[in-house]
Structure formats: C-alpha cells, structure tokens
Input
Amino acid sequence: MRRDVHRRGRYPTTSSRDKVVFLSLIAVFGMMVLLIVGKPSSRPSPLGAPPLTVAQAADAAAGTIAAARTTPAPEKEWGGAEVVALSSGFTMPAFGYGTCCRPSARGRAVTASTLAYLKAGGKLIDTAMAYANHANIGTAIKYSGLDRAELWLTSKISPNMVKSYDECLAAVPSILDEIGTEYLDLLLIHTPKLGKDRTVDLWRCLIEARARGQARAIGVSNFNWLEVEALEAATGVLPDVNQVQLHPWTPKGWRGVVDACLRRGVAVTAYTSLGGSRFRKAGSPWGEALAGLAAAHGATPAQVLLRWARQVGGGRVAVIPGSSSDEHIRENLRCPAFELSAAELAVLEASPPPHGWFDAARGPAKYDDAAATTAWGPRK
Ligand SMILES: NC(=O)c1ccc[n+]([C@@H]2O[C@H](COP(=O)([O-])OP(=O)(O)OC[C@H]3O[C@@H](n4cnc5c(N)ncnc54)[C@H](OP(=O)(O)O)[C@@H]3O)[C@@H](O)[C@H]2O)c1
Output
C-alpha cells in the first residue's frame, strides 16, 4: 500500500481503509482515557477509609490531604474485647462510656469518672460539643497515661451551635484542641434538626473533615432511615454509625430504623440503654422481668440491658452507658457473654418498662419510618 505524506500537513494522507483504522484507534484510546479518569482509584487508603476518588488522589499527591493519610492507623484489636466492625474497615470497641446527661458529667467529676473507666480497661469515650466537657475528658486521657492510639474518641457536632458548612469546618479543629487530640475516631452530627439542606451541608463538612484526617469515621445521631438515606442521595456517602436511643422498650419505629441501618451496613450505637440518668435519679426500680433474667444468667440488671442491645443488633450495636460510680463503670465494662433465648427476649420486651423510665417525648413518633416522614417533614 502506498502512503503519501503531505509535505505541509501534519497528518499522513491515507486510503479510506487506513482512515477507518486510524479513527478506530483514536476512539479506543479516548474510551480508555474516559474509563481511567471517570473511575474512582482502587488505591486502598492507609486509614482503612473507602478508596480515594481520582480527584482526592490528585489532592493527596499535591499534599493537600497528605496529612490525613499519615494519621497513625495502628492495628486496633482492642485487647480481645468485643468490637463492632464498621463498613469503613475500622473496629470500634463495643462497650464505651457515655459522658452526658447527669450533673456529674462535667468538670472534675467527669474527669474522675472517665479516668476510672480508662483505668478499668475501657477504650471508647462518647462526648459531644453539647456536653461542654471536651477539656475535662482531655484531662482524664492525659492522667490515664494511655497512648492516643489505644483509645476511641467519639464526639458530635451540635446543630444548636453550628449551622453551616463553614461553621462546622471551623468547629472541628476546636473540638480537637479542646480534647487535646489530633483526630477523632468518630465524628457525628448530633441531630437532623437543622432541616434537610443544612444537615446535608454538615454532612459534607464531616466528609471533608475525614479527608483532612480530623476524623477517621463519620456518622449521625438521632437520624431515622429516611434522613440517613437523604445524606447518601446527596453525597453518595453513607454514615458509618447512627447513634440512637435503644433499649427493650424502644418504640417500633425506632427498631425499624435500627434494622434498616444494620441491613445497609450502618453500625448502631445505643444510648440510654440503661434507662437514662433522669429516671434513675427519680429512683426507678429495676423491672421484675429484668431482675429475673439477671438472676437466671448470673448477671446484673444493667448487664442484661447491655447484652440485650448487643444481641438484638447481631453484634453491630455498641453501648455507651454513663455512670459516676466506679462500681457501675466496672460492672458495665465486664458484662458477661451470655445469650438471651428467644423466649427471654420476648418476656423482656413485653414487660412494662420500669416506671417513668422511657422518655417517650424524645422523638420516636416523629422519626417513625412507618409514617414515611422525616425531621424535615414528609419525604418530597
Ligand atoms: N446522641 C444523643 O442524642 C444522646 C442522648 C443521650 C445520651 N447519649 C449518650 O449516651 C450515654 C448514655 O445515655 P444516658 O446517660 O442517657 O443513659 P444510661 O447510660 O442509660 O443511664 C445512665 C444512668 O444509669 C445509671 N447506671 C449506670 N450503670 C449502672 C449500673 N451498672 N447499675 C445501675 N445503674 C447504673 C447511672 O447512674 P450511676 O451514676 O449511679 O451509675 C446513670 O444514672 C450518654 O452519657 C451520652 O454519652 C447520647
């Protein structure tokens, strides 16, 4: 075949068959470029977070989020303790410590009780901007002498105090400074109460905080399933964790939320699983059914409630009981590994809640997924 080259032109003159071959090669090359650029990189993140997108990988290469990738990612098996596996690959201790909702959850008292928890072998501390005790907890960590890598720290952005993406981005380093840490293991949006658009903005902020290495895992609290789904629809990112009120007397709607989360790989942290400080203070007795089950398993009533939450969540529910008593802290941490039978679960769940124990006003009806509504109004 004769191939003439046009002296002044850039391209060779070709026969029409050669043209077809040439154009086909260009098309194949173009598709390959599109495939490579359009697809997220499969490069695994050293933090165990989802693979980086190409844009993130480029940023990382440019050094923008390189710091995030150098955050130490030690092998955390938590000394053989029970853990909850998160979809992002992290393992979170299953028996944490709650630092809210009681007079002794601030100041020196919370420093002392948090220290007691850490000395007893506990690893997960649950705090929040709204609890106003970050610095007290930081002091307890310092006194404990534990390495940061030996702990799991959860905190929450408060929509009462932080109302926009920018405010949220500014709040995250403040939280870190107050506690005296370089990163949080888990950062949550405390409630969905800001309305859909601004809640999505906060979620974008948490995604950015994770990219910057300020939080290793991110999640939400008090979100129903529709609210969780809305975040995914807007950003493509599902929370690692949803923290909700969960105990045997939790209304059906909330149980549905927990089921939906677990089915989609969103782990759950149960709060107020012992009934809450307000009602305990009022002297609520342990329920009869609960006391019977505790005796049958050689456990305490509190341990039955903690085990209940772990069991109904198929091991993907963590608990964070709060206590100011050293004895209770140890008891909650050393919960024996018994299993409640189906009949025992039914007895417990059908028993009336100990008097005044459940805070029915805390939104379950509002969040009831069966009613297909959200904290932002009906689904549009
Ligand atoms: N995300 C949210 O919106 C949200 C809402 C509420 C709570 N939380 C988190 O969840 C944590 C726990 O929830 P909570 O504080 O509401 O309720 P909780 O842990 O169910 O109950 C705490 C109460 O139970 C008592 N208690 C603890 N261990 C006990 C034991 N072994 N035997 C008998 N009584 C025991 C404590 O009294 P003593 O001091 O006498 O032991 C305290 O009065 C909070 O601290 C907070 O971190 C999150």
The chain has one domain: 93-370. The radius of gyration is 26 Å. Residues 1-16, 30-75, 360-372 have pLDDT under 50 and may be disordered. The first strand starts at residue 83 and ends at 85.
